[in-house]
Amino acid sequence: MNVTRETLAPGVALTAIQTDKFKSASLTVTFLTPLRRETASANALVPYVLRRGCRRWPTMGEVSVRLEELYGGAMEPLVGKIGETQSLGLVGSFLDDAYTLEGEAVLEQASELMAALLLEPVTEDGVFRREYVDGERENLVQNIRSQMNDKRSYALLRLTQEMCRGEAYGVDRLGDQDSAAALTPQSAWEAYEALLASAQVELYYCGSADPQRVRGALGTLVEGLRAKRRGAPEKLTCQVAPHAAQGGPREVVERMEVTQGKLTMGFRTGGASVWAETYPALLVFNALYGGTATSKLFLNVREKLSLCYYASSAVEAAKGILMVSSGVEFDKMAQAQEEILAQLEAVKAGGFTDADLTSARQAVVSRYRGTLDSRAQLEYYWLSAAVTGRDETPEALIARLEQVTAQDVVAVARGLELDTIYRLMGKEG
Amino acid sequence: MEEKRYDKLGMRLWRGELENGLRVYVDVRPGYGKQFAFFATRYGGLDTRFQTQAGWQDTPAGVAHFLEHKLFDTKDGNALQIMAANGADPNAFTSFDITGYFFQCTQGFEENLRTLLGFVTEPYFTPESVAKEQGIIGQEIAMGDDEADTEVFYDLLGCLYAHHPIRTHIAGTQASIAQITPQTLYTCHGAFYNPANMVLTVVGDVDPERVMAIAREVVTAPGTGDPARDYGPAEPVQAVTHSSRRTMAVSAPLFQLGFKLPAPGKGPDRLRARLIGNLAGELLAGDSSPLYAQLYEAGLITRNFAYGYEDYPGCAFFALGGESRDPQAVEAKVLAECARLAAEGFDAARFQRIKKAAYGGMVGQLNSFEDTAVELAQADLNGIEYLTFPEVFRSITADEVREFIRAWFTEAQSALAVIGPGGGEG
């Protein structure tokens, strides 16, 4: 596997991975921009409007036909969030040339379609076609509303909003419903132009083609982007708040017609983040505490006390927070919370064995080794690296993970501070 | 073991069979760092009534899934912990028709494989551990009760089928799992976890003969075959009822629209029927279909719209669904499009394009170790040679697919299930 990273135009970088491992190739364009309440919804609308059609293939039906000709290729809108950066783009996936029935080259055609969708949208009066904006605005509003349907992820979303309500991280990747509902062809167009002018652009390829061929295939797209650039790209930052607010933890309760309660708890990591020396220790701590099926939370809250089906932790290293999430009966929530905190205290006091540590370290190491064999995970790894301004390879990170000691894990645990508790309860819970 | 090459797919598959009937497949992928192993039995949520030497057994709903949780317990501890300590990422799932246990690792493969084969074939249950699991799975079921997208799918199955156990939740209910005892688990394990009813698939850069040798060493139980199962009286050909509607705490109506299809045949016929069903679905509702464009542009569906053909022992159906402000309007347009396709057909170029796209999708799926291992195992348990799909695709004609649409994508076969807002939103 050969990884190359180069700048193709001001603010436009290409990460190309040449490998014969996969039967499909990836081709993705991503715009990275600071996550802001005022622009999040407008930005989130752009990839969906672009995906509706372009001058050459002006309807979704025509785009779909084109994708079918490329062996059922996909070109999906991307709206994501990594730390306090919003990522927006089109994610392409195509059969690798090696497997086409007639030996056709798909990369060049995929790249042509991507450039057309991105740079030549269907316009009316100099802005996006109203019909497309109206339709996608309704979908966006509905998407935001439907976040409540999956109660497990909804509880985590609400915890994030409550815990980081004064920070950029508290803004959802889709923005908020009111801003979304107010979008017009004009405001969506302005968001599009701003992204083209000043967002950092990441191009990503993974497949059997060599970097020179990839550069060639992307020529039109890169020249089109170059013509739209205005000055240096906007810098991506993230405010890591190391400590919980004074007088906490803050508690929030929401009620809904549900049969099972959701308990979520948000912690600040004491400054441990993707940029800190302690990053590998933070990952191992998370695996040990609640990130795996051998973690303290799984073994005690679920297996020993049989309080729930899931109790797990997840770390957002690009922000420096850790979140615990569990689904429990309403009247057992206090008991679950007590046990979750007791397990944290145990880790702080070094209450784990060498075998626990080895198992946690191996779980994380194995995940990054596996990253090298997965197209989707590789892509996310390198996009996150671009957002956080790091160029560490998975192999180099694995080497650091191997060095994590029990003391390192205890130190991370001791840095944790409970900031906010969010509970989703039943109407009569 | 025997090696078979599938050149168009760039794959080499080794197959072997132990004396006790366990089938072993190894998909050798040179240059990969990770290994994936999947060990499965043909036993799922559907199999609540079956025959043993002692006669017909009636078991509560949810035993297959309960057993999946409990098999990880061993005399010496928990296999999950043992494998994790040895660098593996283990897990398991129970579907309607199979239960599968798997791990992925990048080191210690042989030891992990031994552990996997060992804990699945050596049951160890106690009244205490069963009681404890009733608490955990009880919460899993409670969580499922709040998941409207799963609920609406079961609502659809309830409309389409009169008796078939596909109507019942795989995990059972709080009441059904309360009846489970260690003896229930031993009985079911004894019937279904015999090597002749099981398959092992491995994907990665491993030596196939080593895999075979380890399987022979660990899986020593005799093979007693495939137990007879009872899925109830014959199903009516058509949907039993045509609609269901209720409310939950959701933001907008969720719907599933389904067509009841003939129960699948065996072996190659089943693969062929599945590919025809998939192509018919693509022609009807795929991204490039006039129907999809019409529904999307009218704001009747969103991008989470999804559809698929599913087949299980004794039943098959095609379902499409997602979120809609007006599911009845979607239903009307879908049925109208079915009638139009049956009457007018579709042009040859479109059919070829859709075949190409569906083929590309199946090839792309082989990137995933997990998907490949699961597909190979499922296919084996159903008597299908999965990697022959390129040839089957080539042989399917437009007329065959049109005839399928005409016969089965009809109002009489269909039902619409809706879960709307109203259950105390906000």
Write structural notes for this entry.
The complex is a heterodimer of chains A (429) and B (426). Chain A is α+β, with helices and mostly antiparallel strands and 429 residues long. Chain A has 2 domains: 2-228, Cytochrome Bc1 Complex, Chain A, domain 1 (2-Layer Sandwich); 250-425, Metalloenzyme, LuxS/M16 peptidase-like (Cytochrome Bc1 Complex, Chain A, domain 1), CATH 3.30.830.10. Helix content of chain A is 44%, strand content 23%. Chain A has helices at residues 40-52, 60-69, 107-119, 130-145, 151-163, 177-181, 185-198, 211-217, 219-228, 279-291, 296-304, 333-348, 354-371, 375-388, 394-402, 406-415; strands at residues 2-9, 12-18, 24-34, 74-82, 85-95, 123-124, 127-128, 200-207, 250-255, 261-268, 308-316, 321-328, 417-425. The longest helix of chain A has 18 residues, at 354-371. Chain A starts with a strand and ends with a strand. Chain B is an alpha+beta fold. Chain B is 42% helix and 22% strand. Chain B has helices at residues 63-70, 79-85, 109-121, 127-145, 148-160, 174-178, 182-192, 208-218, 268-285, 290-297, 327-344, 348-365, 369-381, 389-395, 398-408, and strands spanning 2-6, 11-17, 23-28, 35-41, 49-52, 55-58, 73-74, 77-78, 88-94, 99-105, 198-204, 243-247, 254-261, 306-312, 315-323, 414-420. In chain B, the strands form 4 sheets. A 7-stranded mixed sheet of chain B has the order 1-2-3-11-4-10-9, sandwiched between helices. In chain B, strands 12-16-13-15-14 form a 5-stranded mixed sheet, sandwiched between helices. Chain B has a two-stranded antiparallel sheet with strand order 5-6. In chain B, a hairpin with a 4-residue loop joins β1 (2-6) and β2. In chain B, α9 (268-285) packs across α12 (348-365) and α9 packs across α15 (398-408). Chain B is globular. The model of chain B has no long low-confidence stretch (mean pLDDT 94). Classes of the chains: A alpha+beta (429), B alpha+beta (426). The interface between A and B is large, with 73 and 73 residues.
